[in-house]
Structure formats: structure tokens, C-alpha cells
Batch of 2 targets.
Target 1
Amino acid sequence: YCLKGISLTAFPFGLPELFAVALIVALAGGLALVVLFTLANTNVSERVREMATLKVLGFFDREVHHYVNREMMILTVMGVILGLPLGRLVGGMLTMALNMPSLYFEVEVKPLSYVIAAVATMAFALLVQLFVNPVLDRIDPISSLKSVEQRPSEALSVLRVAVVVGELGGELRVEAEFLELAVDFEARTFH
């Protein structure tokens, strides 16, 4: 591999280049941390009622932490398992798209790089858990379960139970059905 007499087998790699690589790695790590935190925070905020129900049922804060953190780690492991081969594929496609006739970039990723990426991702997920656990602790089960969003003209599901006496021999049957009622909360009328 020569380009007008310059050997492409070894590039000088000094302190400025090392600083640039460290900066890119730090920014990528920061991005990963922000993305994981945002996903975890969104997950918890959308499931406040579920977490409050668990607390009302007698789960301790630590058990709720384990429940959410285990789910988060399972999703992170699934992301690593899917992301590493897909990243390799996209990296190969990107270098093929940027291929120039006079210069060729060979994609060589060592297995240690995959291990470092997987460990770093898991470390960021563990760090995010430290930020999410206090959010779980602040969930008040009573107020979370009391605050049902009620909008005007919201549909309510009502369980209607009817006891039906059978025609043959006085047999009793219980029938249940869900009725959808449109309720106008502002006018307090049922339709």
C-alpha cells in the first residue's frame, strides 16, 4: 500500500492524535449514557402506576429496584448482542461507500474491541441504574394510584354483573360483561 512513495502501513500516532481519539471515545460514552438514562427515565415515568401498585402490594423499594434494573440489564444485553454484529456490518458498508480508487481503508476490528464495547455499555447501564433508583424511591404509591387522568368525554369500562335464573330447574348463572360508557366529566352526565 503506497501512495506516491508514502507508506500507508504505519501512521505517526502522537499526543494530539491520542487526545483526539480520547475525546471521540469520551463523547461517544457521554452519548451512550444520555441515551440510556433517557430511555430508563421514560420507562419509569410511563410505568409510575405499575411501580406504585407494586409498592402498595408490599414490595420493598429494593425489590422494585431489582425488578426495574433486571429488566434494564436484559434489554441492554439484548442490545449488545444485536448491536455488535450490526455495527460491524454498518462499519463495513460505510467503508465500502467511502472507498476511493487511490486509497483503501481496511476494516480490522480486533475481538478485544468488541469486549471493550460490551463492557463499557454494561458499565454505563449500571451507572444509569444508580440515577434511576432514586427516581423509583420518590414514587408515592398513594398519590400515584389516586391520580387517574380523567379527560372530558373519556370512555369508562364498567363491569356489569347479572344473575340470571335458568329456565330449567331454577339453575343460577352469573353473567358478566364490560360496558363502555362515554362520560362527560365536566357536565357530570353519562351517555
Target 2
Amino acid sequence: KKLQSNVSMLPEDSGKEKLQDSSTNITKEVKEEIEKIIIPKEIERKFLVKALPENLDKYPHKEIIQGYVAITEDGTEVRLRKKWQKFFQTIKSSWNKIRDEFEIELTKEQFEVLWDSTIGKRVEKTRYEIPYEYEITSKEWKKIKVTKKIELDIYYGKLDWMLSAEVEFKTEEESDNFITPEWFGKEVTDD
């Protein structure tokens, strides 16, 4: 900012346009690098579920309660979550496939102090972790077996009609090549 304000005071013929451009570019590049290091990214797709998979009880599952402290117009959310006997505060940006995600573990006492701020914005669900295998064809025309973990959520209370599934990916390309199981319904990643 200091560089940009000093540049604006230079006379018109001093080449300040180049200085402004280069300071802006450096700032953007540095900011992008800092964000890569500091803010973890989550690549995730979310789907509604039209039918439950068979033998659901054989998969590991846990009860989750979560409450939303805030959800902004662009989809950024601040939420509290209890799973098993662990407590978390998570901040996620936007409603896109690639999101910034920052999560910290809280003590039970910290969680309880913040929990009141979620009244009227709470969700209860059971999350099942289901392994899923599918095949893709590489650019070299080789068959590749892919294994992913599907997180299937069955909601309770006001949302007891809802079933959803999420899948996380390491890369956007991996996400784009995902082949859904038959029991998946409409994709709601951007909703």
C-alpha cells in the first residue's frame, strides 16, 4: 500500500504505470503463495442420495451434531461440530467444489460457550464412511482403479427427510473424473 501511495504522487511521465502494475502483480503472486501455505483447500463434491446402499450397518459411523454460527451470502460458513467426544470450529469459504477450509479443535468448555450462538441453526446426523471403488481410463488408455471414501449423512429432526453424500478429492482433475455410484442422486455441490 505504501508503495502504491508513493507511486501515485509521481509525475505522469515518470513511468508510474509500470510501477503500479508491477507492485500489483507482486502483491497478487505473494498473496496466492501465502494462501497456498496458510489456508488449506478442500476439494469436495456433494450429492443428494436417492436410495441407501445395502448393508449400511457394516460401515463405520458416528453421530454428529453441528450448529452454524454464521453463513454469509457467498456461502462462507462458520460452524461448530461435535463428533464423538471431540469438538471443532470450522470456517469454510463459498459453495464451490474448491473451498478454503480452516478447522481447529476446541475444548468442551469452549464449545459449550459458543454453542448458544447456534440456536435455531443446528443439525443432527449420523455419518457413515463407505469405501467405494470405480475405474477410470487414463490419458494413455490404461484402466485405473480408484478408491474413495464416501461420507453418507442421514439427518434427524427437522431434516429427517434428507440424505446426502460427500466425496473429497486430492485434485480438481480427480474430482472431474469421479464416477458416481447408482444410489447417488442430484449433485448439490454449488447449492
